[in-house]
Amino acid sequence: MKILIPTAKEMNTNVPSLEAKTLCPESQAVLDELTIYSAQELENFYKISAEKAQEEYERIQALKNGTANSYPALQLFDGLMYRNIKRDNLTKAEQAYLEKHLMITSALYGVIPAFAPIAPHRLDFLMKLKIAGKSLKSHWQSAYEESVKGEELIFSLLSSEFETVFPKEVREQMVTFKFMENRDGKLKVHSTISKKARGTFLTALMEDQVTSVEEIKKLSFAGFTYRDDLSSDKEMVFVK
């Protein structure tokens, strides 16, 4: 069983650093393309300020030169979903659960274990970067497929941007989740609620050591409960 989550744009480097690992060939190919850009070109590529572009240029060069600091992926990313995941004071069982089951999908590193060492960077699958004439999604598809090969159960907390990197046959295997809010009798879905809920949901999975669909149906967390009437075999719905 694997649980898949995406990366986040926000990062926090005020966490213990780790020794870097050699980049895999797919990651190195992406980095080689990024190193071609000047700071000014990165400003246009990312559509960010000159200051942010300079920061990213320095990050890319540090990766190229092997001088970039690396951090545990689950601790480095600090978006809304990540801030709602229990990441500190983990029990041995919780740590082991995350190490065994949680994978993070990245446009630079591929599909990596939760605590894999990675360097700060800015890249997602919406970026129009070509690798040997291929889009980022096409470049990573085989490696993404290989990362979950043989898995009978795949829980996806991915956005469509990351989910669609996997080939269709893998996507059809995935169990996905929808988090809704009941407002005056009307069920609403919105980004903030969904991101927070993914984090608290993952925390509940970890704390309860969940490894099956049936166990998920019994979960309640942050006011959310499972709604069988709104769910299907491949999409589980929780309502707050």
How is this structure best described in words?
With 240 residues, this protein is an alpha/beta fold. The chain is 39% helix and 20% strand. It is built from 11 helices and 13 strands. It has helices at residues 25-34, 39-46, 50-65, 73-76, 80-83, 92-101, 136-147, 160-163, 168-171, 191-207, 213-217; strands at residues 2-6, 71-72, 102-106, 110-113, 117-118, 130-131, 134-135, 154-156, 175-183, 186-188, 220-221, 224-226, 235-239. Strands 1, 3, 4, 8, 9, 10, 11, 12 and 13 form a 9-stranded mixed beta sheet that branches. A two-stranded antiparallel ribbon has the order 2-5. A hairpin with a 2-residue loop joins strand 11 and strand 12 (224-226). Helix 2 crosses helix 3. The radius of gyration is 18 Å and the shape is globular. The chain starts with a strand and ends with a strand.
Features:
240 residues, alpha/beta, nine-stranded mixed beta sheet, two-stranded antiparallel ribbon, globular
The Cα radius of gyration reads: 18 Å
**Cα shape:** globular
Percentage of residues in strands:
15-25%
Element-by-element helix/strand order = EHHHEHHHEEEEEHEHHEEHHEEE
Number of strands: 13
Total of helices: 11
Q: Supply the helix-strand structural class.
A: alpha/beta
Round the mean pLDDT to the nearest integer and report it.
95
Task: Describe the secondary structure blueprint for this structure.
Blueprint: E1 2-6, H1 25-34, H2 39-46, H3 50-65, E2 71-72, H4 73-76, H5 80-83, H6 92-101, E3 102-106, E4 110-113, E5 117-118, E6 130-131, E7 134-135, H7 136-147, E8 154-156, H8 160-163, H9 168-171, E9 175-183, E10 186-188, H10 191-207, H11 213-217, E11 220-221, E12 224-226, E13 235-239
Parallel strand pairs: 1-3, 1-8, 8-9, 9-13
Antiparallel strand pairs: 2-5, 3-4, 6-7, 9-10, 11-12, 12-13
